[in-house]
Amino acid sequence: MKFFHEIKACDITPSTLQSEISSRGYVLIRGLLPQKAVSSVLGDVTKVLSAAGWLLPDHDPQERKADTGAACGDPDPTFKRVYQEVFNLESFHALPHQPALREVMKMLVGEQPFVHPKPIGRLIFPRCERLVTHAHQDYEFMGGDPEFFTVWIPLHDCPVDVGPLTILEGSHRFGVQYHEREHLHVPEIPIGEAVGDGWVGGHVNAGDVLIFHSLTVHAASPNLSDQLRISLDCRFQDARRALNPSNLVFAGESGKSWEKTYAGWHSDDLRFYWKTIPLTLKPSKAELAYLAETAESPSARAKYARMVSQLD
Length: 312
Prior knowledge:
Elements: E1 2-3, E2 6-8, H1 14-24, E3 26-30, H2 35-51, H3 77-87, H4 90-94, H5 99-109, E4 113-115, E5 120-124, H6 139-142, E6 148-154, E7 165-169, E8 198-201, E9 209-213, E10 218-220, E11 229-238, E12 242-243, H7 258-262, E13 280-281, H8 285-294, H9 298-311
Parallel strand pairs: 1-8, 2-3, 12-13
Antiparallel strand pairs: 3-9, 4-11, 5-11, 6-9, 6-11, 7-8, 7-10
Helix pairs in contact: 1-5, 8-9
């Protein structure tokens, strides 16, 4: 596998970024985020994981030494409970809004970048094959306008043995690729069927960001270390492009809500920030309301009704 092509943060320009994304489908920027900001989020996350018993007690939590007997992942109930604590962290939501990252977003999508409000944390136990994320495109899960981008941010140095992402270079040029769904918790592209120019990978350090197009095929490499791999990924787009409203709300039956997420926050700066932005939703709120009345199954009608209520 070839190594990532990389750019130093001090060398980025709009034309360089756009050229990298256009030709390769990704860009790896070294040293973009302040180490202090990334380390702060790692400290908050590992505090939660340590309290949950996921880390060995005789080590500094930020070393992320895993108690392999506690290994779990989505959709395990234990994982979901701990993950929700991580998701509720104010620092976790603030990191995608770092000024340096926002400037890069502007270079790629224009003066009105919109950060999707539901970042995703990856809490990956070592040597647990069932938890490895296989090849897929983010558009498969996010919908809306395909012209959006993912930012993958490791919260610690991530050498190859800890399981950083790998990218199928050039795969964004081949459109939406087939994903297998049957008997899978997470849809994935069957092994050997993804189309692109070749896989690339390598170490990604704290402060680096890996940005890729919604149609770029990517996968995690296995975590072969004795540490948890902890990362955050978020998505952004031009605010004027269509957005799937499921990226703003909690459509499931879990009882999650923004009110619960914000309960322990100290600042109001990022609370419901998207409600002040004139977004184009696809489907629209009116279409969701119609589906809440007409969808074939009761569960679907309930889902759409929950979405409408959270968009008010």
